[in-house]
Design brief:
The complex is a heterodimer of chains A (about 230) and B (about 280). Chain A has about 230 residues and is mainly alpha-helical. Chain A has helices at about 15-40, 60-65, 70-100, 100-105, 110-120, 135-160, 165-170, 175-205, 205-215, and strands at about 5-10, 45-50, 50-55, 215-225. In chain B, strands 4-3-12-7-8 form a 5-stranded mixed sheet. In chain B, strands 5, 6, 9, 10 and 11 form a 5-stranded antiparallel sheet that branches. The chains are: A mainly alpha (about 230), B alpha+beta (about 280).
């Protein structure tokens, strides 16, 4: 006879939850103030065959979010909060390295194949469930890539913040205007990341979301009453 | 939200149902506690936002922001120093029609270039009347002519490779012994003798900038009378303008009327409107 038991299993350490949630308002301020800066010179478009597909950004966008004529304000917020944004990122990376948490986060040789399967499953093209580990291959890739993007934002940001003092870096990144474009593109990348992240969190449900706030998950297991298996997911 | 299950035999104390209830209440307790903390913590960014907005403005910025921007400038100056050169380009890369992006201090009033003189004030000690000297365009043209092709960077975000010609500010100061207490040529190795700031303003006083002396004495800081090899056109600041590549373009004042060395930070048009004072690149 089988019975169903529930257990409280720790999932995300307090430090990781802290860095995650502190990053949210910091990144929000960086993107908002970045848009105040970008407004003053906003040449970026995506053209397909000479036809403008996307314009960054239409006037209505600036109007709706009140992003126009606020360059000085944007620069001040950006160059104050950059410190906190970078500090939080450095502490997070330092923590994952020091605590060994990186083992769950860095992609390994199986991650690409697994990420592909997860993607197919999430798109409804594959029945088989993703592996019930802390982070599957798709998550490992995404959460590592977004840290790489953070580093990219820092470097491209420095390149356009001090293009004379850091002329070598600016040159390495393709010059002043290229670095500015990359800095902008990374921001669009965060927004896309955020949208997918949000959809996946909604899809994964309450238990998963609660783990990012409270740190634990409730794990349901079917087991024979006589043989209690040791936990295999911590 | 909790997982609900029907207990198999709820009458025994160790029955799965009782166990589930225990776990459920632990889950509920820990969830509630965590989310209360989470809710309280999410008030912090709201508080920070309100606190910043409530700060008394200092030249158009909340005071703590002004402090951080000044500290950023001091830090980057200290880390890199003023000697780093701006990358230069061959003349062929320069644009033919450099962008005109501001006319504050350049009223359309048939400004008489031939009557123009550069007024230099050395406020050597506070309270004392500054010593005043005047220079003509020929005085500046007598100095070694220096050309510079560099990527001009506007604080708005655009940039252009432009070709300027004129006299190095440092040559001008050295030749006439300006910007020092002793009246000798300025020397960055003798900061005690050096006036720490130089301010510039247009003849009508409508536009004005302040510069730290190390940036003003940077070897690529020019007092320009040429653009693309021809005399400076009026919209670009005829007869003489500043081009200071280690700063955003807002500092490159057009049509310099007065140049004043001082011990205190000179007023700066855009810094008064909420921009960083240094705007160093």
């Amino acid at each position: 006879m089988q019975r169903i038991t529930q257990r409280i299993v720790p999932k995300h350490p307090l430090a990781v939850r802290w860095f995650h949630w502190v990053n949210f308002p910091l990144l929000l301020v960086m993107i908002w103030s970045g848009l105040l800066i970008y407004w003053a010179y906003d040449p970026y478009r995506i053209n397909i065959g000479g036809y403008p597909l996307v314009s960054f950004f239409p006037d209505a966008f600036y109007q709706y979010f009140r992003l126009h004529h606020r360059l000085a304000e944007g620069m001040s917020w950006h160059f104050v909060f950059m410190w906190l944004f970078v500090l939080n990122g450095v502490l997070y990376v330092g923590y994952t390295l020091f605590s060994g948490e990186w083992r769950y986060l860095l992609p390994n040789r199986h991650s690409w194949r697994e990420a592909w399967r997860v993607t197919l499953h999430d798109l409804g093209l594959r029945k088989e469930l993703p592996p019930a580990r802390k982070f599957n291959g798709a998550q490992r890739l995404a959460y590592t890539a977004v840290i790489g993007m953070g580093l990219g934002s820092l470097l491209t940001g420095l390149a356009i913040y001090k293009p004379t003092q850091l002329a070598g870096l600016t040159g390495l990144l393709g010059g002043y205007q290229t670095a500015r474009l990359l800095h902008f593109a990374l921001t669009i990348g965060y927004v896309l990341f955020f949208i997918i992240h949000l959809l996946q969190v909604i899809r994964a449900g309450w238990n998963n979301f609660r783990a990012m706030v409270a740190g634990f998950e409730v794990v349901t297991e079917k087991e024979a009453p006589s043989a209690v298996e040791p936990p295999h997911q911590v | 939200m909790m997982m609900e299950k029907k207990p198999a035999a709820a009458d025994r104390p160790d029955a799965p149902g009782n166990q589930d209830r225990e776990i459920n209440s632990a889950v509920r307790r820990r969830t509630l506690k965590s989310f209360l903390w989470f809710g309280a913590a999410s008030l912090v960014p709201v508080g920070v936002w309100r606190w910043v907005r409530a700060q008394p403005p200092e030249e158009g910025l909340p005071r703590p922001f002004r402090r951080v921007l000044d500290a950023n400038a001091a830090l980057t100056q200290a880390l890199v120093g003023p000697a780093r050169l701006v990358p230069t380009f061959p003349v062929s890369k320069a644009v033919r029609q450099p962008r005109v992006n501001g006319s504050i201090g350049l009223p359309d009033d048939n400004f008489d270039v031939s009557a123009w003189k550069l007024r230099v004030e050395n406020a050597t000690s506070p309270g004392r009347r500054p010593t005043v000297r005047e220079f003509t365009l020929d005085d500046l043209k007598a100095l070694p002519r220096t050309e510079l092709v560099f990527e001009f960077k506007c604080i708005e975000g655009w940039s252009q490779i432009q070709h300027w010609g004129g006299a190095k500010f440092s040559d001008f100061a050295a030749k006439y012994g300006l910007g020092t207490r002793s009246g000798k040529g300025p020397d960055l190795n003798h900061p005690g003798d050096l006036m720490p700031y130089v301010g510039m303003r247009t003849p009508d006083g409508a536009y004005y900038v302040g510069l730290d002396m190390p940036s003003a004495l940077h070897p690529q800081t020019l007092l320009c009378y040429e653009l693309n090899g021809v005399p400076l056109p009026p919209p670009h600041g005829a007869p003489l303008r500043l081009v200071i590549p280690v700063k955003y373009g807002v500092k490159s004042l057009k049509r310099i009327g007065t140049l004043q060395f001082s011990d205190t930070r000179p007023p700066d048009y855009w810094a008064e409107r909420g921009y960083d004072y240094s705007v160093g690149l």
